[in-house]
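Changelog-linked ticket: copper (II) ion example.
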Amino acid sequence: MAGIPVGWEARNNGILLRFASAVKPDPAVAPFAQCWNYHYSAAYGSPEYSLRYSDTPGHDPLEVRSVQVLDGGKALFVEIPQLSPAGQVHLSIPLKSEFEEVPTVELFATVHALAPAFVDFPGYTAIPKAVPHATVSATPTAPTRPNPWADGEIGRALLVEAGLGLQYVQKELVVKAGERLSLTFRNPDVVPHNWLLGRIGSLASLTEKANLMIGDPEGLAKHYVPDSDEVIVYTDMTQPQQSHTIRFSAPAEKGEYPYLCTFPGHSMVMRGGRFLVVFHCKGRRLLRRREAGANGLEARRRVHRIGRWQGYRPACPPRG
Ligand SMILES: [Cu+2]
Protein backbone atom coordinates (compact mmCIF):
# COMPACT_ATOMS: atom_id res chain seq x y z
CA MET A 1 0.00 0.00 0.00
CA ALA A 2 1.16 3.47 -0.78
CA GLY A 3 2.74 5.23 2.15
CA ILE A 4 3.91 2.18 4.08
CA PRO A 5 7.71 2.05 4.23
CA VAL A 6 9.38 -1.18 3.12
CA GLY A 7 12.64 -0.28 4.85
CA TRP A 8 14.27 2.26 7.14
CA GLU A 9 17.75 3.19 8.36
CA ALA A 10 18.69 5.33 11.36
CA ARG A 11 21.52 7.65 10.34
CA ASN A 12 23.45 10.10 12.49
CA ASN A 13 21.40 13.00 11.10
CA GLY A 14 17.99 11.46 10.44
CA ILE A 15 15.96 8.54 9.16
CA LEU A 16 16.01 7.18 5.64
CA LEU A 17 12.72 5.59 4.55
CA ARG A 18 12.20 3.44 1.45
CA PHE A 19 8.90 2.78 -0.29
CA ALA A 20 7.74 0.27 -2.88
CA SER A 21 6.14 3.05 -4.96
CA ALA A 22 6.74 6.78 -5.16
CA VAL A 23 5.35 9.04 -2.42
CA LYS A 24 5.09 12.81 -2.07
CA PRO A 25 5.29 14.63 1.28
CA ASP A 26 2.55 17.19 1.89
CA PRO A 27 4.24 20.60 2.14
CA ALA A 28 1.20 22.10 3.88
CA VAL A 29 1.36 19.88 6.98
CA ALA A 30 4.44 19.87 9.19
CA PRO A 31 6.14 16.53 9.86
CA PHE A 32 6.58 15.56 13.49
CA ALA A 33 9.12 13.46 15.38
CA GLN A 34 9.56 12.51 19.03
CA CYS A 35 11.37 9.91 21.11
CA TRP A 36 11.22 8.26 24.52
CA ASN A 37 12.71 5.40 26.53
CA TYR A 38 11.40 2.50 28.57
CA HIS A 39 12.82 1.34 31.88
CA TYR A 40 13.37 -2.38 32.14
CA SER A 41 12.25 -4.01 35.37
CA ALA A 42 10.48 -7.07 36.74
CA ALA A 43 7.18 -5.22 36.39
CA TYR A 44 5.04 -5.80 33.33
CA GLY A 45 5.26 -2.86 30.94
CA SER A 46 6.89 0.49 31.61
CA PRO A 47 5.87 4.12 31.60
CA GLU A 48 7.40 6.21 28.82
CA TYR A 49 10.37 8.32 29.92
CA SER A 50 12.10 11.36 28.50
CA LEU A 51 15.67 10.85 27.25
CA ARG A 52 16.78 14.37 28.00
CA TYR A 53 15.29 14.34 31.47
CA SER A 54 15.82 10.84 32.76
CA ASP A 55 13.39 9.49 35.36
CA THR A 56 10.83 12.00 34.15
CA PRO A 57 7.83 10.53 32.36
CA GLY A 58 7.49 12.17 28.98
CA HIS A 59 8.48 12.36 25.34
CA ASP A 60 11.09 14.58 23.75
CA PRO A 61 10.10 16.37 20.57
CA LEU A 62 12.74 16.14 17.82
CA GLU A 63 13.15 18.94 15.31
CA VAL A 64 12.65 17.84 11.69
CA ARG A 65 14.95 20.13 9.70
CA SER A 66 13.84 18.91 6.26
CA VAL A 67 12.25 16.05 4.36
CA GLN A 68 14.26 15.15 1.25
CA VAL A 69 12.58 13.35 -1.65
CA LEU A 70 15.02 10.87 -3.22
CA ASP A 71 14.96 8.32 -6.00
CA GLY A 72 11.89 9.85 -7.68
CA GLY A 73 9.88 9.57 -4.46
CA LYS A 74 10.76 5.96 -3.64
CA ALA A 75 12.82 7.14 -0.68
CA LEU A 76 12.54 9.96 1.84
CA PHE A 77 15.26 11.25 4.08
CA VAL A 78 13.79 12.83 7.20
CA GLU A 79 16.55 15.12 8.45
CA ILE A 80 16.66 15.12 12.28
CA PRO A 81 20.04 16.50 13.35
CA GLN A 82 19.45 15.68 17.06
CA LEU A 83 18.41 12.05 16.52
CA SER A 84 19.89 9.71 19.12
CA PRO A 85 19.44 6.04 20.05
CA ALA A 86 16.14 5.61 21.91
CA GLY A 87 13.75 2.93 23.05
CA GLN A 88 11.23 4.42 20.69
CA VAL A 89 11.41 7.00 17.92
CA HIS A 90 8.09 8.09 16.41
CA LEU A 91 7.91 9.77 13.01
CA SER A 92 4.77 11.19 11.49
CA ILE A 93 5.19 12.36 7.89
CA PRO A 94 2.01 13.55 6.12
CA LEU A 95 1.87 12.65 2.44
CA LYS A 96 0.02 14.33 -0.39
CA SER A 97 -2.28 12.33 -2.58
CA GLU A 98 -4.86 12.91 -5.29
CA PHE A 99 -7.06 10.37 -3.59
CA GLU A 100 -9.58 11.24 -0.94
CA GLU A 101 -7.82 9.38 1.82
CA VAL A 102 -4.64 11.23 2.73
CA PRO A 103 -2.03 8.81 4.06
CA THR A 104 0.51 9.67 6.72
CA VAL A 105 3.67 7.68 7.31
CA GLU A 106 3.71 6.64 10.96
CA LEU A 107 6.94 4.92 12.00
CA PHE A 108 7.63 3.60 15.51
CA ALA A 109 11.20 2.37 15.62
CA THR A 110 13.65 1.20 18.26
CA VAL A 111 16.98 2.84 17.48
CA HIS A 112 19.98 1.02 18.99
CA ALA A 113 22.72 2.76 17.02
CA LEU A 114 23.13 5.39 14.34
CA ALA A 115 24.84 4.71 10.99
CA PRO A 116 27.04 7.47 9.52
CA ALA A 117 25.33 10.70 8.46
CA PHE A 118 23.40 10.72 5.19
CA VAL A 119 24.97 13.53 3.15
CA ASP A 120 23.72 12.94 -0.38
CA PHE A 121 21.19 15.75 -0.67
CA PRO A 122 21.35 19.45 -1.55
CA GLY A 123 21.73 21.73 1.43
CA TYR A 124 23.37 19.10 3.66
CA THR A 125 24.97 20.79 6.67
CA ALA A 126 26.87 19.03 9.44
CA ILE A 127 25.09 20.00 12.67
CA PRO A 128 26.73 18.95 15.94
CA LYS A 129 24.66 17.13 18.56
CA ALA A 130 23.50 19.46 21.32
CA VAL A 131 25.01 18.97 24.75
CA PRO A 132 22.36 17.20 26.81
CA HIS A 133 20.72 19.18 29.58
CA ALA A 134 21.49 18.39 33.19
CA THR A 135 19.42 15.36 34.06
CA VAL A 136 17.42 14.90 37.19
CA SER A 137 18.51 11.62 38.67
CA ALA A 138 16.31 11.48 41.76
CA THR A 139 12.73 10.41 41.38
CA PRO A 140 10.85 13.69 41.26
CA THR A 141 8.52 14.58 44.08
CA ALA A 142 4.81 14.70 43.40
CA PRO A 143 3.23 18.05 42.60
CA THR A 144 2.32 19.75 45.85
CA ARG A 145 1.54 23.38 45.10
CA PRO A 146 -2.25 23.83 45.36
CA ASN A 147 -3.79 25.42 42.30
CA PRO A 148 -4.86 29.04 43.01
CA TRP A 149 -7.90 28.73 40.68
CA ALA A 150 -9.25 25.39 41.91
CA ASP A 151 -12.27 26.98 43.62
CA GLY A 152 -14.29 30.12 43.26
CA GLU A 153 -17.31 31.22 41.31
CA ILE A 154 -18.27 28.91 38.44
CA GLY A 155 -18.24 30.43 34.95
CA ARG A 156 -18.97 29.49 31.37
CA ALA A 157 -17.57 26.02 30.62
CA LEU A 158 -14.64 25.84 28.21
CA LEU A 159 -12.87 22.64 27.20
CA VAL A 160 -9.26 22.24 26.10
CA GLU A 161 -7.91 18.80 25.23
CA ALA A 162 -4.45 17.44 24.55
CA GLY A 163 -4.23 15.86 21.09
CA LEU A 164 -1.77 13.48 19.47
CA GLY A 165 1.72 14.70 18.69
CA LEU A 166 2.06 17.34 21.44
CA GLN A 167 -0.79 19.55 20.34
CA TYR A 168 -3.94 21.06 21.72
CA VAL A 169 -7.07 20.00 19.90
CA GLN A 170 -8.54 23.50 20.36
CA LYS A 171 -6.42 26.04 18.52
CA GLU A 172 -8.55 29.02 19.39
CA LEU A 173 -10.68 30.03 22.37
CA VAL A 174 -12.82 33.15 22.21
CA VAL A 175 -13.99 34.84 25.41
CA LYS A 176 -15.36 38.18 26.43
CA ALA A 177 -13.20 40.62 28.38
CA GLY A 178 -13.63 39.90 32.10
CA GLU A 179 -15.92 36.92 31.43
CA ARG A 180 -16.11 34.33 34.23
CA LEU A 181 -14.87 30.93 33.00
CA SER A 182 -14.61 27.31 34.18
CA LEU A 183 -11.93 25.87 31.96
CA THR A 184 -11.39 22.11 31.93
CA PHE A 185 -8.18 20.68 30.55
CA ARG A 186 -8.56 17.03 29.59
CA ASN A 187 -5.54 14.83 28.89
CA PRO A 188 -6.27 11.63 26.91
CA ASP A 189 -2.56 11.36 25.96
CA VAL A 190 0.07 9.00 27.44
CA VAL A 191 2.25 11.72 29.02
CA PRO A 192 1.43 14.56 31.45
CA HIS A 193 0.46 17.98 30.07
CA ASN A 194 -0.92 21.24 31.37
CA TRP A 195 -2.50 24.41 29.97
CA LEU A 196 -0.98 27.76 30.84
CA LEU A 197 -2.28 31.14 29.72
CA GLY A 198 0.35 33.86 29.30
CA ARG A 199 0.27 37.61 28.88
CA ILE A 200 0.11 39.10 25.36
CA GLY A 201 3.47 38.66 23.61
CA SER A 202 4.99 36.39 26.28
CA LEU A 203 5.18 33.14 24.27
CA ALA A 204 8.92 33.15 23.51
CA SER A 205 9.91 34.17 27.01
CA LEU A 206 7.57 31.68 28.72
CA THR A 207 8.79 28.87 26.44
CA GLU A 208 12.34 29.52 27.53
CA LYS A 209 11.45 29.79 31.21
CA ALA A 210 9.41 26.57 31.04
CA ASN A 211 12.33 24.65 29.56
CA LEU A 212 14.60 25.84 32.37
CA MET A 213 12.19 24.43 34.96
CA ILE A 214 13.70 20.95 34.57
CA GLY A 215 16.79 22.20 36.40
CA ASP A 216 14.63 23.35 39.33
CA PRO A 217 14.49 20.62 42.01
CA GLU A 218 11.00 21.91 42.83
CA GLY A 219 10.02 21.78 39.14
CA LEU A 220 7.42 19.04 39.34
CA ALA A 221 6.13 20.31 42.69
CA LYS A 222 5.47 23.62 40.92
CA HIS A 223 3.78 21.80 38.01
CA TYR A 224 6.69 23.09 35.88
CA VAL A 225 5.13 26.54 35.99
CA PRO A 226 7.76 29.29 36.02
CA ASP A 227 7.62 32.01 38.68
CA SER A 228 6.85 34.86 36.31
CA ASP A 229 4.37 37.72 36.15
CA GLU A 230 3.80 36.73 32.51
CA VAL A 231 1.75 33.76 33.77
CA ILE A 232 -1.97 34.59 34.02
CA VAL A 233 -3.48 31.21 34.99
CA TYR A 234 -2.61 27.52 34.63
CA THR A 235 -4.03 24.08 35.21
CA ASP A 236 -2.14 21.48 37.22
CA MET A 237 0.25 19.18 35.39
CA THR A 238 -2.44 16.70 34.41
CA GLN A 239 -1.65 12.98 34.32
CA PRO A 240 -2.74 10.74 31.42
CA GLN A 241 -6.50 10.07 31.36
CA GLN A 242 -7.12 12.82 33.94
CA SER A 243 -8.63 16.26 33.70
CA HIS A 244 -8.34 19.43 35.74
CA THR A 245 -10.69 22.42 35.96
CA ILE A 246 -9.79 25.99 36.89
CA ARG A 247 -12.14 28.94 37.52
CA PHE A 248 -11.02 32.44 36.63
CA SER A 249 -12.05 35.67 34.98
CA ALA A 250 -10.75 36.44 31.48
CA PRO A 251 -8.36 39.40 31.25
CA ALA A 252 -10.02 42.82 30.99
CA GLU A 253 -7.73 43.87 28.16
CA LYS A 254 -8.74 42.61 24.72
CA GLY A 255 -6.18 40.95 22.46
CA GLU A 256 -4.53 37.65 21.59
CA TYR A 257 -3.05 35.74 24.53
CA PRO A 258 -0.84 32.67 24.00
CA TYR A 259 -1.25 29.31 25.71
CA LEU A 260 1.22 26.48 26.05
CA CYS A 261 2.14 23.32 27.93
CA THR A 262 5.08 23.85 30.30
CA PHE A 263 6.10 20.20 30.68
CA PRO A 264 9.86 20.32 29.94
CA GLY A 265 10.46 19.90 26.23
CA HIS A 266 6.80 20.30 25.27
CA SER A 267 6.61 24.08 25.12
CA MET A 268 8.63 24.15 21.89
CA VAL A 269 5.80 22.28 20.15
CA MET A 270 2.73 22.25 22.35
CA ARG A 271 1.76 25.89 21.94
CA GLY A 272 0.44 28.28 19.35
CA GLY A 273 -3.16 28.30 20.53
CA ARG A 274 -4.91 31.67 20.58
CA PHE A 275 -6.96 32.81 23.52
CA LEU A 276 -8.84 35.76 22.04
CA VAL A 277 -10.29 38.27 24.45
CA VAL A 278 -12.92 40.36 22.69
CA PHE A 279 -15.46 42.99 23.70
CA HIS A 280 -18.09 41.57 21.35
CA CYS A 281 -18.31 39.30 18.32
CA LYS A 282 -17.65 42.02 15.77
CA GLY A 283 -14.23 42.44 17.29
CA ARG A 284 -13.57 38.77 16.78
CA ARG A 285 -14.58 38.91 13.12
CA LEU A 286 -12.18 41.81 12.64
CA LEU A 287 -9.38 39.82 14.21
CA ARG A 288 -10.14 36.87 11.96
CA ARG A 289 -10.20 39.05 8.86
CA ARG A 290 -6.82 40.44 9.86
CA GLU A 291 -5.49 36.91 10.26
CA ALA A 292 -6.85 35.87 6.86
CA GLY A 293 -5.16 38.90 5.33
CA ALA A 294 -1.84 37.91 6.85
CA ASN A 295 -1.92 34.20 6.18
CA GLY A 296 -4.19 34.05 3.16
CA LEU A 297 -6.69 31.41 2.30
CA GLU A 298 -4.66 28.61 3.85
CA ALA A 299 -5.23 29.93 7.37
CA ARG A 300 -8.99 29.87 6.91
CA ARG A 301 -8.89 26.43 5.28
CA ARG A 302 -6.87 25.13 8.19
CA VAL A 303 -9.46 26.32 10.66
CA HIS A 304 -12.11 24.51 8.61
CA ARG A 305 -10.10 21.32 8.41
CA ILE A 306 -9.46 21.35 12.15
CA GLY A 307 -13.17 21.90 12.60
CA ARG A 308 -14.05 18.85 10.55
CA TRP A 309 -11.45 16.58 12.14
CA GLN A 310 -11.98 17.49 15.72
CA GLY A 311 -15.66 18.34 15.76
CA TYR A 312 -14.51 21.79 16.86
CA ARG A 313 -16.54 24.82 15.86
CA PRO A 314 -15.29 28.26 16.82
CA ALA A 315 -18.20 29.91 18.58
CA CYS A 316 -18.87 33.38 19.86
CA PRO A 317 -19.34 33.65 23.61
CA PRO A 318 -22.99 34.06 24.52
CA ARG A 319 -24.31 37.59 24.91
CA GLY A 320 -24.90 38.52 28.48
CU1 LIG B 1 2.66 18.82 27.33
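Closing comment: Example verified and attached. The CA atoms of residues 14 and 80 lie 4 Å apart. The pocket of copper (II) ion is lined by residues 193, 261, 263, 266, 270 (CB under 6 Å).
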